[in-house]
Amino acid sequence: MKKIALSLALLTTTAFARPIPENERITPLLQGKREVTNLVEFAKLGINQAQTSLDLWSGSYWPQYQGSLGVRYRDPSFISLMTSHEQYDKFKELREKSPLYTYAGRENILSPAEKYDSIVGDSTMTLTKYAWELGEKNAKLGKVPTWRGICDGWSSAAQMMPRPAKSVTLKTPQGTDITFFPEDIKALGSLLYARAQENVIFLGKRCYPVVGVFTGGCDATNPGALHKAIANRVGVLKKSFNADISTSSEVWNYPVKSYKFTYYNVFNEEESSDFKNVFEVFEKKHRFSKSGRRHERTYAIVGVKAEVVYADMREANLLATDSINEDKALTKTYYYDLELDRNFTILGGEWTSAAPDFIWAPNDKTYPLSDGEVNGRPATEEEIRKAAQISSKVGQPLSVIVEKLFELSK
């Protein structure tokens, strides 16, 4: 394991950090709690390793190249296209060859959007149309970028909404039974958060890498900010936050499940669970990497190996129930060093590996509300239909419907 010498390939993608900027202060993540910033206190509190108390469920990001929530993921014909990773035009062609009326008696294999439109009595299928239009709008040279989807919605909904454990059967206004499987319910919850959540807690900025061998990308999340965010949000509060783990212009959001910090000496790579065994006093500064960029109050520097486990996405499955057995996890190992003052308070740091682009969290004090519900939640069939059509035009399912599905699925 070599953390000090960077390869040429890593130099082109690794983001370097400066002392923590104002827009990466972690205070908004703390819900009014005191910020723990000192590595000595980290050890006393036992937060060099921890996991969230949330039940972070895995789900699909409903990629646009497959038709987003419009894809009939339970239909064998569509499954074949998904398995072979066909592009948007193939999914659209199949859908056009398979009109909705041909699924009479087989409503349970319709797409999440089609099921939703049917339940709210929207004969114009507004949400379904919206889902398929996403592919049309985002096609480039005949192809839709495979990363485009609603991972932002999934990563938030997995934190804010309970796991849909079982299937739910509802009747359409015409009296037809339609079963919403856990994957359908997750899809609608994810879309609600993707299109209607507001006031998210955002640290850093989205970066667009510059093309060039030595130009690198952007500053990414400051290592000091990330270290404190993980320890305070996950270790102390037992909550989670999202990280864009991509180092490119693509965005891949994942919520943090757990982490483990191991400290190491930046010169000899000796590792320890106790930072005091391996930190180096910041003297003879020319010996240290990027010494001219260090915080002016830096007294010591210590390396960190952060093993972060994220809840992972997966393709929608065909099960009638859902449990942690269906979840996936993604582990990322980050290397960076921390700049510490004489009290061992974190001042900032520098990356020696690829880094998360930015971090953010859904706002615990707000709940997504669709445009059709801003003047009050609909109650009658007619109110629901009208509100749904208004909201579906901008890709928002009604929160009153989504909440009910999650409640019944517990």
Give a brief description:
By secondary structure, the chain is of the alpha+beta class. The protein is 27% helix and 17% strand.
Write the layout of secondary structure elements.
Elements: H1 8-11, H2 39-45, E1 49-51, H3 76-83, H4 88-97, H5 112-119, H6 126-137, H7 151-160, E2 168-171, E3 177-180, H8 182-196, E4 201-203, H9 223-236, E5 242-244, E6 253-264, E7 271-272, E8 280-281, E9 300-312, E10 328-340, E11 346-351, E12 359-361, H10 381-392, H11 399-408
Antiparallel strand pairs: 1-6, 2-3, 4-12, 5-6, 5-12, 6-7, 6-9, 8-9, 9-10, 10-11
Task: Describe the protein in words.
- With 410 residues, the chain is of the alpha+beta class.
- It has eleven helices and twelve strands.
- The protein is 27% helix and 17% strand.
- The model is unreliable at 1-17 and 211-217 (pLDDT under 50).
- It has helices at 8-11, 39-45, 76-83, 88-97, 112-119, 126-137, 151-160, 182-196, 223-236, 381-392, 399-408, and strands at 49-51, 168-171, 177-180, 201-203, 242-244, 253-264, 271-272, 280-281, 300-312, 328-340, 346-351, 359-361.
- The protein has two domains: 8-58 and 200-361, no CATH class; 64-198 and 369-408, no CATH class.
